[in-house]
Design goal:
By secondary structure, this protein is mostly helical. The chain has one domain. The protein is about 60% helix and about 10% strand. It contains four helices and four strands. Strands 1-2 form a two-stranded antiparallel sheet. It has a two-stranded antiparallel ribbon with strand order 3-4. β3 and β4 form a beta hairpin. The longest helix has about 55 residues.
């Protein structure tokens, strides 16, 4: 027999606890509940495994793409702007950036400015710390995007 506290229950020492009596569930009803919940759990676990497998695969691909962008795409982008190993290319975006920075600073480019940092990266390449930092950021962003990227339609629209 199952017992449960009724609505008159409180924690003061003067009150008495009222208990309600509930009938014991039959064995057949317990088996029916167990059978329906186990099939529900099996369907839920299969759907979860299928979905997580797709998310893990997408996250792995996204992380690889993010690392590729960090280690190859960023240096190529710096070169495309005009920051080369021999200096700033004439007529490029880098030349315009350097001109604007020099005018703003009275004729020179300030150390630590974006132009100076990009010129250093263009001339000597990215440092190990910069590669690790960019790889961490772009790899994480790629993994997140890959895990949540839509993997196709789950319904068939045949209207």
């Amino acid at each position: 027999m199952l017992l449960a506290a009724g609505p008159g229950c409180c924690c003061s020492a003067k009150s008495s606890v009222r208990l309600r009596r509930y009938p014991e569930p039959s064995r057949a009803s317990l088996l029916r509940i167990a059978a329906s919940s186990s099939s529900f759990l099996q369907r839920h676990q299969e759907a979860w495994r299928w979905g997580m497998g797709r998310k893990i695969k997408g996250a792995s691909i996204g992380a690889a793409v993010g690392l590729g962008v960090a280690l190859v795409g960023v240096p190529v982008g710096i070169l495309a702007l005009g920051f080369t190993a021999t200096g700033i290319a004439a007529g490029s975006v880098a030349a315009k950036m350097m001109s604007a920075a020099a005018i703003a600073n009275g004729g020179g480019v300030a150390a630590g400015s974006i132009v100076a940092v990009l010129q250093s990266a263009g001339a000597a390449g990215l440092s190990l710390g910069a590669k690790i930092g960019l790889g961490s950021v772009f790899g994480s962003l790629g993994a997140t995007a890959g895990a949540w990227w839509p993997k196709g339609s789950s319904t068939n629209n045949t209207s």
